[in-house]
Design brief:
The chain is an alpha/beta fold and about 350 residues long. It has 2 domains: about 1-145 and about 320-335, Glycogen Phosphorylase B (Rossmann fold); about 150-315, Rossmann fold. Helices cover about 40% and strands about 15% of the residues. Strand 5 (about 120-125), helix 6 and strand 6 (about 140-145) form a beta-alpha-beta unit. The radius of gyration is 21 Å and the shape is globular.
Length: about 350
Amino acid sequence: MKIFFLLKSKKTPSSRIRILDIFPELQKHGIEPEVEFLPSGILRRWLLFRKCRRFDAVVLQKRLLGILELNELRRKSKKLGFDFDDAIYLRNSSPSQNLKDYVSETRTQMFKRTVKACDLVIAANRTLAEKTTEFEPDAQVATIPSPVRIEDLLFKKDCMIKDLPVIGWIGTRVNLQFLEYIAPALRELRKEMEFILRIMSDTEIRISGVRTEFVKWSVETQNCELRNFDIGIMPLSQDPFTEGKSAYKLIQYLAAGVPSVCSPIGMNREFCNGDKYALSAPEPADFCWRILQLIKDRELRERLRAKGRPFVSGRFDIPVVGASYAETLRKLLQAKAPGMRRASRK
């Protein structure tokens, strides 16, 4: 089985997390994957699409194409799949509470065309899968989460808290706004106790009134750095875009044995329902007392630490997800021929 993956860009985290990281597992299951990053310019893309004929199937990852490009890709592909992990049919306007800020007719139409043109859609979570079938009821959809490699994540030896607790956050610059979103809660927490807010990202920011520490993110060091967090946080605003979030940083925290607090939004709900694997902070202000609760209660930290990693291991470890992805690709090859689907302008 030869599968051609067309990835959004080298800078897109999901290109690495969802596709490149699982290549060794796909190979174990009889898949021969090959990858190209989509170039800019329609001519360069059309030249690349010629290569698609040599593969049993093509998987377009997260990129929404114009109608002419999409039709050309469809024409050159024996089978066509689409993989995505964000609410890309919306404009990313978080944390705005004005619903009109998220509406993008262009994005919505491009997404609908893509789904209609594909034989199979691979969504990162239930919300995205349901949205896909809402737009295109006849779409064939599989739900495959974004994975972590458990063996690479060093597990915390214990839940002892340092004299100066480290509250940790990991993510890209586009999500730094969520730290600003809960900044009042962090400042309130500082009135109760001193702590360090350690931010591991590609861009440095400072939260006014909070002692912050910046750690430059790298794929080589992130797993070691995560273990140094005493508590992990994943704040989100309640809005249409965040409903499509895939809880990836929360999965990383749990795999590393880091007790965590998160907003119960999108896929996060699966982890914090009943505070089972992480503590829930429904409102931004709740981050203050929930973090304080974790800091004061060692038994609670130990419980979350002990339960989180096995849960992640059973559902999100790369061997598990890789096997599921390989099986899904086999289903793509077996998908009923779409009669040379073409993207319509509607």
